[in-house]
Amino acid sequence: MPLAACSTLQPVATPRQFIPAAQPTRIWVTRSDNSTLMLEAPRLLGDTLVGFVGGRYQEMLLPQVRWMGVRQPAPRRTTVLVAGLVVVSAGLLAVLSGSGPGGGPSGGEDPSNPSSLRLPFRP
Question: Does the global pTM surpass 0.70?
Answer without folding.
Answer: no
